[in-house]
Amino acid sequence: MNKSSMTRLAVVAAFAAIVGLGAGSTARADGLDDIKAAKKLRVAIDLGLPPYGTTDDKMQPTGSDVETGRLLAKDLGVEFELVPTTGASRIPSLQSGKADVVISTLSVTPERAKVIDFSPAYAPLRTVLAGVKSISVKNLTDLDGKSVGTTRGTTHDTYLSQNAKNSKIVRYEDDATTAQAFVSGQVDLFTTAELLLAPIAAKNPSRQLELKFVLETFKLAIGVKQGETRLLQTVSEWVKTNLKNGKLNDIYKKYHGNDLPDVILKDGV
Questions:
Q1: Mean of the per-residue pLDDT values of the chain
Q2: SS (H, E, C) the chain
Q3: Beta strand 40-45 with 101-102: parallel, antiparallel or unpaired?
Q4: Distance between CA atoms of residues 256 and 253, nearest Å
Q5: pLDDT number for residue 252
Q6: Which comes out higher in pLDDT, residue 79 or 17?
């Protein structure tokens, strides 16, 4: 073998070694491998938004998002670990490596899709503007000059910021604090998930709470850190499988009292 051939072989071997090392490093760095190695799935969930996430009378986490996370961990063959979060800290928990996935009323939006990846939708969420009956509010224009409470980092926070620029937005760190601000009279109008209105009204009849209008209806999905291709593929296939076999519908119906809508079920097709 001449010197030129030996040189070419050396270059090819070196390139192969670099490619092989790169591929190996990428595979080992994928979140799915980390989960398997740690034998646990760290799931970021907000426990301040029942019935998606809350605590029971024994102060144990419960809710449809909690049960969804437990089922995902079980099917992956690992332990479930809950990482408490708020609306504003859900995405940072992924980016910082504090959580492996987010299952926490995380709506799919174009803005969020720029910084994290999403599975197919597993549940819906409708956000609304509500307030005391004595204040007449029928649309966004009626919010001009009025104070509106909202939860920082949520889709309804973004919606108000973009569409009610003449209102006075008062931000709170989680849904429970936003609701308490309304109950205590700090704000007379606020945004929230529609399902929270009934329990707030029942516990605080003197506030005469009523729904003013619907903001948006969202698809909720499991959030995964960008670049973790195998983890995203595994989670996405898991969602589709459990939409088809009815397990995700069973979880939703258990906590919400009704079946998943067709707009969610079709994501499992």
A1: 88
A2: CCHHHHHHHHHHHHHHHHHHHHHHHHHHHCHHHHHHHHCEEEEEECCCECCCEEECCCCCEECHHHHHHHHHHHHHCCEEEEEECCCCCHHHHHHCCCCCEECCCCECCCCHHHCEEEEEEEEEEEEEEEEECCCCCCCHHHHCCCEEEEECCCHHHHHHHHHCCCCEEEEECCHHHHHHHHHCCCCCEEEEEHHHHHHHHHHCHHHCEEEEEEEEEEEEEEEEECCCHHHHHHHHHHHHHHHHCCHHHHHHHHHHCCCCCHHHHHHHC
A3: parallel
A4: 5
A5: 94
A6: 79
What number of residues does the chain have? Answer: 269
Contact 122, 219 (CB under 8 A): no
Owner of token pair 């109008």: 189
Q: Against a cut of 0.90, is the pTM above it?
A: no
Q: 266: number of CA atoms within 13 Å, CB side?
A: 4
- pLDDT tens-digit profile of 55-104? 999 999 999 999 999 999 999 999 999 999 998 899 999 999 999 999 99
Task: Tell me the percentage of the chain whose pLDDT exceeds 70.
Answer: 88
Token pair for residue 111? Answer: 């803005």
Query: What type of residue is 214?
Result: V
**CB neighbours (10 Å) of residue 268?**
19
